[in-house]
Amino acid sequence: MNNDIYPCVWMDHNGREAAAFYTEVFPDTIITEDSGLVQILSISGQKLMLLNGGPMFKPNASISFLIANADETETERLFNLLAADGIVLMPLDHYPFSSRYGWVRDRFGVTWQLYTGEKGDTDQYFVPTLMFVNEQNGRAKEAIGFYTRLFPGSSTEGIMEYDGKEDKKGNVQHAQFKISGYTLACMDSSIDHTFNFDEGISIAVMTNDQETTDYYWNAMTQDGGEESMCGWLKDKFGVSWQIVPHRLMELFNQKDQEKASRTREAMMKMRKIDIAKLEEAGA
To answer: What end-to-end distance do the CA atoms of the chain give, in Å?
Structure first.
């Protein structure tokens, strides 16, 4: 399983509460890191990051997490637990595409699609699912092409299009694809929505060197992409990414706290992460 790519959920200082909740809801789930600012979960071996950034951003349904399993009883269990003190977006019911399916926003604002059926070609417990809405509606296929060309070891598993009855003909009803072996899904929606892609849920990409960091950063910020701070950016579709060298985390976690602090201070002044400057600061 590729844990060099993983989603990050922006939390309003309640990451520890959310982490404890998810360990109770999902099977084989443990907290592997808790720095206060960040909690890292392993959910059946799959990485999920919670970032306690404050009230600036909130997760929304533009990126949801799809959990597929063969057992209707397990779908119902997950739905009921996640819906408690949350909001039901689509009721748990029989649908043409699933014998038991529901879409819910949990008490922390994270949205989950609970699906009874085949997982497809993936070993992930959950699949981040991008919904292209408002100005981005109709761009799902373009995004699949962009991402699978950008990341090595990528492939498209399948694309199901609308026939024009429930949404615009040719729009993506559901598609599943891999970037460097990590499974994502996407869809289009022509309904007016009150949200768009934003920093509430981002996708982190861990890199091994400056060349790879530059490669992803430059490709994603061109043609309408947007640089942010501390390794964050938005691509041309508005999806937020964090391009993070492994070396950054090594310098952050070094035993000498004074050096680690200097590294963090240097990082806070950067847009794209410059490994050499971080090493100089942390020397």
So the answer is: 34
